[in-house]
Amino acid sequence: MSGILITGGNVIDRTGERRADVRIAGGIVSEVGQGLTAADGEQMLDASGCVVSPGFVDLHAHLREPGTEEAETIETGSRAAAKGGYTCVVAMPNTDPTQDSVSVIEFVRRQGEAAGLCDVRPAGSITIGRQGQQLSPLAELADAGVHLFTDDGDGVQDPLLMRRALEYAADLGIVLAQHCEVKRLTERAVMHEGHCCSKLGLPGWPSIAEELMVHRDIELVRLTGAPVHILHLSTARSVQLVRAAKADGLPVTAEATPHHISLTDELLAGYSSLYKVNPPLRTMADVEAIRAGLADGTIDAIATDHAPHAPETKEQPLDQAPSGMLGLETALGVSLASLDMPVADVVAALSWKPAAIAGVADQHGRPVAPGEPANLTVFDPNVEWQVVPTQLASKSRNTPYVGLPLRGKVKHTVWRGSATVLDGVATR
Ligand code: DOR
Description:
Elements: E1 4-13, E2 16-25, E3 28-33, E4 43-46, E5 51-54, E6 56-61, H1 74-83, E7 86-91, H2 102-115, E8 119-122, H3 138-143, E9 148-149, H4 159-172, E10 175-178, E11 191-192, H5 195-200, E12 204-205, H6 207-224, E13 228-230, H7 236-247, E14 252-256, H8 284-295, E15 301-302, H9 311-314, H10 331-338, H11 343-350, H12 352-358, E16 376-385, E17 406-415, E18 418-422, E19 425-426
Parallel strand pairs: 1-4, 1-5, 6-7, 7-8, 9-10, 10-13, 11-12, 13-14, 14-15
Antiparallel strand pairs: 1-2, 2-3, 5-16, 16-17, 17-18, 18-19
Helix pairs in contact: 1-2, 4-6, 6-7, 7-8
């Protein structure tokens, strides 16, 4: 494998920030320093005006394969990920069949390796078929290398089952990730319950449906000592609950999506299903609380909840359309445009903090230093740009960001020592 020299960038990693060139050889970072000169046959990547950081890690991507390949495949989803600066994505288990057996997990892993664009780490479901009735074979899946488990798309409703799952998780060293939604409170819901939904005459998804489960799971963490990761926090009160849990020293982590820091429920006024997402877009006060939670570290990670849907399903009336929007290719641009945080803190929330939660911190989110795996992202933090739908690598088009100004764009992505994205274009 011929090497790469990244020149003129500002390196940001968990050890700090410095101007340096970065040489990559044999899949690892081989040299970091100023004024490095290209060796014979080395590929030069210009990083002037750019940040060079460890590759991003997404804790929450729906890659849709197996089962819904008309919306996304592992290949198209990992290409979208690479374009978004990701070197590792956790693939959500709400596939068909569900990722609740070693054979499906191995299939997803193999497809990820075959695509060869980023690490694809399948999450397992907590319950068989995500039906909330019977635990998946957690020990067997943990043995097969699965670290994160979730019934995402649904929360585990039964508190006894969740308690048992946590007791196993404590022994197995795995992490349970919860989609917090008490279903009984959200039947038929299409948007946030508040004055907008009353005005529009649409059934509401109340904040309390999330907060009750956040609270329940925090108390179950207190009881069992097992860690819980809370997916896509969306309400101000949820942020307070997580903040208090962390102050108590509990092993609770949390993520927020780019859409919950940038969009509000008022956008549903045109009844467009592009804005239908679960949990729903909420009020500006909630958006501000989520931003503050990221800024003070209460919320550990920015995670996309990349949820591709084919046009024939998404472009239906609000009550029938599925929830979800694309995220992988716009996460950085939305985050930098929406958050009043130092770039280094945004990178932390996109890279080393999620790497630790996903259990991939041996390969991703590493310091940019000799001997470390060469999984890196080069991005311009200042450039303003807009989404061009025809240029998306994702197979689906359900992004609400067309026409909105984004800030910060990925220029190059390097995965396992070779470029998956060069000048914004996927190499394979
Ligand atoms: O909006 C969402 N879409 N939220 C989820 O929890 C599931 C996801 C999906 O799979 O489409």
